[in-house]
Amino acid sequence: MNIDLEDLRAFVATADMQSFRAAAEAINLSQPALSRRIQKLETVLGVMLLERTTRRVSLTAVGRDFLPRARRLLDDLETSLMSVREIAEKRSGLVSIACIPTAAYYFLPDVISDFGRDFPSIRFRIVDAGANDVMQSVLSQRVDFGITLWGADDPDLDFEPLVEEPFLLACPKDHPLASRESVSWGELADHRFITVGRGSGNRLIMDLGLAQSRLRPQPFFEVQHLSTSLGLVEAGLGVAALPRMSMPVGPHPRIATVRLTDPVIRRTVGIVRIAGRSRSPAAELFHEMLLSRWRMAE
Question: 228 and 186, same structural domain?
């Protein structure tokens, strides 16, 4: 069924004004052009919508039933166009991000807060997940982009580094290593070491960094999340190596932070996205703010 939206506008205007002349002037058409549009609409629908007399135009019974439906169609179109325009002007929309938990906790809240002051109607969906799951979310296009660890060698992905940070030692404040300025990885072999499982991107970075070391810590506790490592350290159960972003902000009553050396192991956190894929104006704008803010904090 080939119904032109301009045919609907012609019908609604004529029904409202009950005059071909007034309706034609209202929508900037000639009277013959207006009549042709309504005739076309009636032909397509196979019914008469208007009763024409020498003095006035009135609706048929079918026309009275069809008028509110035609209004809804036009209103829905106008609402949809306004929504698209608002998204294009970055006043509304949705930004969807997959993010490793440490970055979600450490950095995203401040950036989203600043972003929200300028664009309060833009909504966010944040998928906090491990590094591998973030990559999969990006590749499957379930999110606009991801914030994760560098490590993927996929030609379909672009990676923009944001922060390079070292792994540090977290230990109880009454631990023998707590007063040291630095500790070598080899020295941790004599202490109960808490680490994340082998499926973690952070574990892979540590294992690769220690591949040439003869003396290395052996896991006494193995957990799934870095936050769990900190909880065990706080309880006095052992020591853990964590990236700087995962460490407590400011002085902690129970946990001391010490530099790890020999070797210094670092991880790179950045934005990953599908190469060449266009995104919504809202996602592009937030991406630009992330680059600006995070690189300033580097």
Answer: yes
